[in-house]
Write a structure and sequence with these properties.
This is DUF2029 domain-containing protein. The chain crosses the membrane at residues 38-57, 109-135, 142-160, 166-185, 192-216, 228-247, 289-308, 315-336, 356-372, 384-404. The structure is a single chain. The protein has helices at residues 12-26, 39-53, 55-60, 67-78, 81-86, 95-105, 112-134, 142-154, 169-182, 188-202, 212-217, 227-245, 259-276, 278-288, 291-304, 313-336, 358-373, 379-403, 416-428; strands at 433-438, 443-448. It is mostly helical. It has 2 domains: 42-248 and 419-454, no CATH class; 251-412, no CATH class. The termini are far apart.
């Protein structure tokens, strides 16, 4: 009798199990505990109130900032809705700012300054809630999750130039999209809403394309509902890419990039400013030069390195991704937009173009959060990590408190009401159009008198 050798049949579930193991390593399912449901609307309301009622925030209710007026509001007032929504600016789409401007354009013109500030605060507070919800699988410690989400609202570098204006929302949206791409939830509703969130983010920021590798990694996830987020990101990427290929982005670089100067500027703008804010860096640098920034970088790397010592791989992935994105973003911002005012020795040091620090600082603090998330077993180490958490919290709290009474971020000069009043008077004299001036000094836009209230 001859024996016929047969190969064992392939287990159709083996591929699924393999993908589950990989997915569980890099994209753990959200299992973190959370506060009661009533806490979410309370936290949202408190976040919006903080952004609008701090000294700098109150000035945004009465002043319009830069592109908020001369680009987004102007287009919303003078162009058809569809045309205004899909019009590229500076070489790419800005879907979320344009949506906000379209809503504000439906309000009486004198309300525009408050409408723009409130809409920006609402979006930013929403991003904080998204980050908290999306971090459930990656971060087990509830206090660390709360801190990661709270930084969207409290981050010192985010509460001066980028405060309460729609033109700078993309920095916070980018951070929220990062967490959403790492999130994995069983809820179909969550995945559908998250897909919409990443679509809006990618069509609002060209820098979101840096998240393509993370979105591509989600293809390993075995659940069909997991791919909703991937599909939303892919669709947004395609739309943004078509817009970018079809328009020209003017160069903002005014000369050859000073590479050493850019590196030193980035060192102050991210590792140090993340903990102290740009205002404190401007005070420290003339006295201490680079040493505090070097110490901040070394301390950050030391905390992030904890994820490599016996912790889950997802923590190491989170820390590595945070550090890498932080470095890539500040490098891209400084190199693509290089000008003498960005040099480390420029007046006010890193306060010029403070917006470039927002996303890099958020990602850097993400790496810190990954390192502080899990307490090691030995009691002595547990005390050390708890001490590090409280020390970090104390530094960030001090930076927030130090910023509140200062003048950084406040908008002075003629208010939006002054501009509208002057425009009404101008149009009453029979002109066809009028000019509305807003902040900072030198920004304005011409508006047909038909759009000015009588």
């Amino acid at each position: 009798m001859s024996v016929v050798e047969t190969k064992p049949e392939a287990d159709p579930a083996s591929g699924v199990r393999w993908r589950e193991r990989v997915a569980g390593t890099v994209f753990p399912v959200g299992i973190g505990t959370g506060p009661p449901r009533w806490a979410y609307p309370a936290a949202f309301a408190a976040s919006v109130a903080y952004l609008l009622l701090i000294p700098a925030g109150r000035s945004r209710l009465t002043h319009v900032w830069a592109e908020d007026g001369a680009r987004f509001l102007l287009d919303a007032l003078t162009r058809p809705v569809g045309s205004a929504l899909i019009a590229p600016y500076d070489g790419y789409l800005h879907t979320v700012p344009r949506l906000c401007a379209l809503v504000v354009a439906a309000l009486p013109l004198p309300w525009a300054s408050a409408g723009l500030a409130v809409s920006a605060a609402l979006v930013r507070a929403a991003v904080a809630l998204v980050v908290f919800a999306a971090s459930a699988g990656m971060l087990r410690s509830l206090p660390v999750r709360l801190a990661v989400a709270a930084m969207v609202v409290l981050l010192p570098v985010g509460n001066a130039e980028p405060l309460d204006n729609i033109a700078n929302l993309h920095w916070f949206l980018l951070y929220g999209a990062f967490w959403v791409l790492l999130a994995r939830a069983r809820s179909l509703l969550w995945n559908a809403l998250a897909a919409g969130f990443v679509f809006l983010t990618v069509t609002s920021s060209a820098l979101a394309l840096l998240l393509v590798p993370l979105a591509a990694a989600r293809l390993v996830l075995p659940w069909r509902r997991d791919q909703l987020i991937t599909a939303g990101f892919g669709l947004g990427t395609a739309v943004q890419a078509v817009a970018m290929l079809g328009t020209h982005r003017p160069s903002h670089c005014t000369g050859p990039v000073d590479v050493p100067g850019a590196i030193l500027s980035g060192l102050l703008r991210v590792p140090l400013a993340a903990y102290t804010g740009s205002e404190q860096v401007a005070r420290l640098y003339p006295v201490t030069h680079y040493w505090p920034a070097v110490l901040a970088l070394v301390g950050t790397l030391a905390i992030a390195a904890r994820t490599l010592r016996g912790g889950p791989r997802s923590a190491a992935v989170l820390a590595a991704a945070g550090l890498l994105l932080s470095a890539l973003l500040i490098a891209a911002d400084l190199v693509v937009n290089w000008q003498p005012g960005l040099h480390v020795d420029a007046p006010l040091v890193v306060a010029n173009a403070q917006r470039y620090s927002v996303a890099p600082c958020l990602f850097l603090l993400t790496a810190v959060a990954a390192g502080l998330d899990r307490l090691p077993a030995p009691r002595t180490r547990r005390r050390a990590v708890l001490g590090a958490r409280f020390a970090l919290l104390a530094v960030l709290t001090a930076a927030v408190i130090a910023q509140l009474p200062g003048s950084w971020g406040r908008l002075d000069g003629p208010t939006w009401d002054d501009s509208v009043t002057a425009a009404v008077s101008d149009c009453a004299q029979g002109g066809d159009s009028t000019r509305l001036h807003h902040q900072p000094v030198g920004w304005f836009f011409d508006l047909p008198c038909a759009a000015v209230p009588r």
